[in-house]
Amino acid sequence: MKQLPEGALTEIAAYFQVLAEPTRLQILNILRTGERNVGELAQMCGFTAANVSRHLALMTQQGLVERESRGTSAYYKIADPAVFALCDLVCGNITRQLDRAAERRAAFTPPV
Q1: Name one Pfam family in it (predicted).
Q2: Which of 51, 56, 83, 109 lies at 20 to 30 Å from 42 by C-alpha?
């Protein structure tokens, strides 16, 4: 990261904070396949509609998802698909860390 003012760092931290919640990651993963309404997301996640709505409000505020009203339902979709590139980058990093840890543990396993 280049030198950024404190306000920018605060915004970046807020964005990452939204991604630091497993339920929100689950919602993002579902929305990866297409838009859904709150009821569909709640059913697919196994949470209440109120809980999912609260998470979606934060995600909308940070610009991760967009909301569109249709009749009595609100539909949500990914606002910026670049969030998946970020998530894929992090997943790759975690996979590499786990692989290295497994290799270190294997050094202590006697050959069969």
Answers
A1: HTH_5
A2: 83
Q: At what angle do helices 82-106 and 6-19 cross, to 10 degrees?
A: 70
Structural domains in the chain, CATH included, are: 6-79 (1.10.10.10)
Residue with tokens 């939204």: 18
CA angle 70, 76, 79 (to 5 degrees): 125
pLDDT digits (tens, 9 = 90+) for 14-68: 999 999 999 999 999 999 999 999 999 999 999 999 999 999 999 999 999 999 9
Is there a contact between 81 and 73 (Cβ–Cβ < 8 Å)?
Answer: no
DSSP-based three-state secondary structure for 66: strand
